[in-house]
Write a structure and sequence with these properties.
Length: 158
C-alpha cells in the first residue's frame, strides 16, 4: 500500500466515524424529544440497529435477525427478548408451526422509530443541501460503487 492510498483510506475512515457520530447524536436528540427514554429506557446502538433491520426487512426469525446483524443466534435472541420486554418488538407465533416465531416492530413503537428515521433523513437532506447538487450527486455515485463492492450479493466488478 502506497502512502497516498493510506492517506485516502485514513480520510475516509475519519469522515465515516464523524458521520456515524453525528447520526448517533441525531438519534439521541430525536429519542429525547419524543421522551422515548422514559417509555423504553436506554437503548444501545446494537438495539437500535436491530430495530432498523427488522423495520427494513419486515418480520424476521431470530436466525435471520442474527444473520443480518452478523451475530450469533443466542445473542440475537437475548437482544430481541430485551426489546420485547421494553414493548418495542413483539413476537408472533406461526399458527401452523408453533416452533416458529417471528419478531416485528410493535405498533406502539412504530411512530417513535419512524420519527427517529425522519430526523436522520432530515440531517442528510441538510448535508446534501450544504454540499450542493454537483458534489452531492458525485458523492452518491461514489457511494453506489462502494455499495456494490461491499454487498456480498452483488458482483464485485466495476
Amino acid at each position: 500500500m502506497n502512502n497516498e492510498t493510506k492517506q485516502l483510506a485514513q480520510r475516509i475512515l475519519e469522515t465515516g466515524k464523524l458521520m456515524r457520530d453525528r447520526v448517533y447524536d441525531v438519534q439521541a436528540q430525536a429519542m429525547n424529544q419524543r421522551t422515548m427514554a422514559r417509555r423504553y429506557g436506554e437503548l444501545t446502538q446494537s438495539q437500535l440497529e436491530s430495530i432498523r433491520v427488522i423495520r427494513k426487512n419486515g418480520p424476521l426469525g431470530i436466525n435471520e435477525l442474527a444473520e443480518h446483524l452478523g451475530i450469533s443466534s443466542p445473542s440475537a435472541s437475548v437482544m430481541a427478548d430485551r426489546l420485547v420486554e421494553k414493548k418495542i418488538l413483539e413476537r408472533t407465533v406461526n399458527p401452523h408451526d408453533r416452533r416458529k416465531v417471528t419478531i416485528s416492530v410493535s405498533k406502539n413503537a412504530l411512530k417513535d422509530i419512524e420519527a427517529i428515521e425522519q430526523a436522520i433523513l432530515v440531517f442528510f437532506m441538510d448535508l446534501v443541501d450544504r454540499l450542493g447538487p454537483d458534489t452531492a450527486k458525485a458523492w452518491s455515485e461514489v457511494l453506489e460503487k462502494v455499495e456494490m463492492i461491499l454487498r456480498p450479493d452483488t458482483l464485485k466488478s466495476l
